[in-house]
Amino acid sequence: MATPRVRQLNFRREDGAPFNYTPGQFITLHMPWQDMELRRSYSVATIPGSEDEVQIAVTYVEDGRATKLLYGMSAGARVEATGPFGRFVLRDDPPGRYLLVATGTGVSPYRAMLPQLRARLDGKQHEAVLLLGVRGPDELLFGEDFLSFARENPALCFIASYSRRMPGTPMAHARQGYVQDHLMELQPDPKRDIVYLCGNPDMIDTAVERLKAAGFDNHNLRREKYVSSN
Ligand SMILES: Cc1cc2nc3c(=O)[nH]c(=O)nc-3n(C[C@H](O)[C@H](O)[C@H](O)COP(=O)(O)OP(=O)(O)OC[C@H]3O[C@@H](n4cnc5c(N)ncnc54)[C@H](O)[C@@H]3O)c2cc1C
Q1: Ligand 1 within 6 A of 67 CB?
Q2: DSSP of 152-167, one letter per residue?
Q3: pLDDT at 188 over 90
């Protein structure tokens, strides 16, 4: 368990070949369920450099079918997968500020993007704010990766939005409330900012509505909604 409600699973390709992906992409797992095939997608959380592993983080969904299968897996189990897929990736963007917003496991793509982000921040033309919304400090998925990255790279600001429980001791990165509200407190500017949104569909809908009202459109607004396909 990576957090009390998230299980991390690390896979290897059976043929031993490296797993080639662009940070931000996802894979689709194909699993037998009764008389049908269940297809469920999961963002790749692997940080480039350890491509022999396909790491995913799976939220526990009550009565979820894939959840039941993936939480029941033990070491050595096999699963069929296709991919990687998706266009939720960093592009050749002009200088500016990235606002990377996630709820829960929606932060996995940003973990995979860390080396690319480092290169862009080092170039001094970009800065970034990463906002992760979870219920409480024990659910801060990959929190140490982001906190240590932010310590080493001052051009990245990491904000944890806690909707239910705050840390016992005050912490500079911790805010009480919802990530979509903290995003708007950063005064997103369509002339300068590029916003990535990943995870809970309701969070994304709310954020998109507000950002469009502020002048954003599809060229500076990128999203990945976590929904089940069948
Ligand atoms: C591109 C993409 C990437 C994704 N990446 C990830 C990822 O990295 N990690 C991850 O955990 N999930 C991810 N998802 C969601 C994932 O594919 C499944 O939808 C999720 O695991 C639930 O599947 P399930 O079969 O267990 O639940 P289902 O049997 O499909 O759903 C059971 C019930 O729970 C509700 N439900 C479904 N999902 C959620 C949820 N997340 N929270 C609360 N209620 C829910 C459903 O509406 C339904 O009522 C991604 C989805 C997409 C499209």
Answers
A1: yes
A2: H-TTEEEEEEESS---
A3: yes
